Amino acid sequence: MKIEIWSDYVCPFCYIGKRRLEEALEQTGLGESAEIVFKAYELDPNSPVESDIPMQVGLAEKYGMSIEEAKKMTDNVAVQAETVGLNYNFDKMTPANTFNAHRLAKLAEQEGVDKTVSEQLLQAYFIDGEKIGKDDVLLRIAEGAGISRDRAKEVLDSDEFADDVKMDIAEAQQIGVKGVPFFVINRKYAISGAQPAEAFADALRKAAEEA
């Protein structure tokens, strides 16, 4: 069973959706037979590599709301994250460009540690409040996953895997992805958003029965 996941490392619902998929895979006993492929998507390609603007301030500016309204919005998301065991730290988060994070994830896929790197990127951003657009953060994550620092630096200092990231984003547009997370099971069943684990479980069972 092949599960393709279009997501971005600064998308709060992508981390929540990832956890709910993992819960469904465990519930259905299909985890060992599932091949999970992470696909790149950029929520905001124009985000700076690093910023010191607090997340709530950035959201207020982006959506034309007050900082209080933005904080209420992030508080609501944090409550949803807690339901899957994630303690989001919006007070430490700042906007970040994720293009290089996606390139690093492509290297990780080549090295066979894509699951580890994707989890570490999400944790670094949402739990630890780290600036995942910065090379030093990405290099530390790569090393922690067992990737050679020199090899990771070689990728970050070049355009390597840039075309792979762009291809994922173009494919998302072709199949009509309007937002992430977006899950495709066996190229047949699509799930948009961080749906309840039961929705994932139902789709997984249908795909397994047909396979």
From TrEMBL:
Under the heading SUPFAM superfamilies, the entry gives: Thioredoxin-like
According to UniProt, the name of this protein is: DsbA family oxidoreductase
What would be one Pfam family of this protein?
Answer: DSBA
The chain positions of domain DSBA-like thioredoxin read 3-204
Annotated source species: Sporosarcina psychrophila
Q: Which domain of life is it from?
A: Bacteria
Q: Which CDD domains match?
A: DsbA_FrnE
Gene Ontology MF annotations? oxidoreductase activity
